[in-house]
Amino acid sequence: MLTPELLHALRNLPLAAKQAAEGFLAGHHLSRRRGAGMEFSQYRPYQPGDDLRRLDWRLAARSDRYYIRESEVDTSLTVHLLLDASASMNHRDDNGLTKLDYARLLLAALAYLAQQQGDAVSLSVLHPGGLLHLPARADARQLPRLYQALQHATGEGRFPAASQLAPLLARRQRALTVCVSDLYEEQSEINTLLTRLRAVAGDVLVLHLMAGNELSFSYRGAVTFQDLETGQTLQLDAEQQRSAYQQQIQEWLHTTAQAARRQGFDYYQLSTAEPLDGALREFLRRRQATSF
């Protein structure tokens, strides 16, 4: 299993995405429904209105009964990938990766997985300037477009205002929206966007990205912390504050997860210190449920 730091060290986002995702393709994680596809599944009795081209005439001649050949066809859907590119995503973990580095790898792998499933994939990079949006496509040139946009994404400023994100809410097409964010917000701006997206497009999967050193508070001695979005600083003794911090961060994570699920989002917490497989597995689980 490749660690995120090894994937990042490749310095090749398309290759890293392929390496991270291909292990999940071995089991052919395809969503299926019965229909008029190519792979035979079962027979069922003919009913008025059925397509006669699917009627098995040989079986009818032998049994004097009419049966329809049902098959399984691969289904596809639209997957909207959202990247929080606010400045807090520049926080760096002890393994050298920033949250934004990890998010790039994860979204590239998700895009690769989705395309292998035949899905149309879009990408929206959310930054203070507003919105960089690549509309959903399923053609062979979409992945290079997405990779290029991810490679050039930089973390800066605060999460964009709602007025700047209006184009995301204009569509009415059902889709699976996947948002990668650390969920640091001032006035519920991220939650508001996801709530509106769920109303207009359906399922929302929130991949809550935290740095390993945020979760463990691995700092030592006197430390000066700076808010990457406001510039405010705070000096403290790490040993004295560790216990209180860890309690508060766990309470916040618990409250955040509860609130997300209460609002109908699928929620999954992940760490920049962990491999991508948990998030990829969660995406495939959610995708399969959405396809039916």
UniProtKB/TrEMBL annotation:
InterPro entries: DUF58, vWFA_dom_sf
Gene3D superfamilies (UniProt xref): von Willebrand factor, type A domain
Transmembrane regions listed in the UniProt entry: none
Start and end residues of each DUF58 domain: 42-250
Signal peptide: none
UniProt cross-references to PANTHER family, sorted A to Z: BLL2464 PROTEIN, DUF58 DOMAIN-CONTAINING PROTEIN
UniProt-recorded name of the protein: DUF58 domain-containing protein
Organism of this sequence: Hymenobacter metallicola
Lineage: Bacteria, Pseudomonadati, Bacteroidota, Cytophagia, Cytophagales
